Amino acid sequence: MNDAEMQKTGDDIVDVLRSIFDPEIPVDIYELGLIYDVQVSSEGDVKILMTLTSPNCPVAESLPEEVKQKVGTIAEVKDVEVEITFDPPWSKEMMSEEAMLELGFL
């Protein structure tokens, strides 16, 4: 995969991430700021570094699995690794302006 294809795949991944919603907050996980990093290798391997709104999040097990499954449906993606981190911990300041507007924070 060349640089342009890796960029296109990265854009496709972001589109998929925008279709996944936190069940407690009516905003997608990308706009919520739960996605810290997305890396795409030239071989089509994807590594996603993400967090949850709290360590006790009720979807702590199912949300990363949903991310892995949905990103894995992209044709160019060969393998998906999802890593959860709480460093730095999520806060509402990590949300996009769009998410803050949606939730009435602006």
TrEMBL record:
<dbReference type="InterPro" id="IPR002744">
    <property type="entry name" value="MIP18-like"/>
</dbReference>
<dbReference type="Pfam" id="PF01883">
    <property type="entry name" value="FeS_assembly_P"/>
</dbReference>
<protein>
    <submittedName>
        <fullName>DUF59 domain-containing protein</fullName>
    </submittedName>
</protein>
<dbReference type="InterPro" id="IPR052339">
    <property type="entry name" value="Fe-S_Maturation_MIP18"/>
</dbReference>
<feature type="domain" description="MIP18 family-like">
    <location>
        <begin position="11"/>
        <end position="84"/>
    </location>
</feature>
<dbReference type="InterPro" id="IPR034904">
    <property type="entry name" value="FSCA_dom_sf"/>
</dbReference>
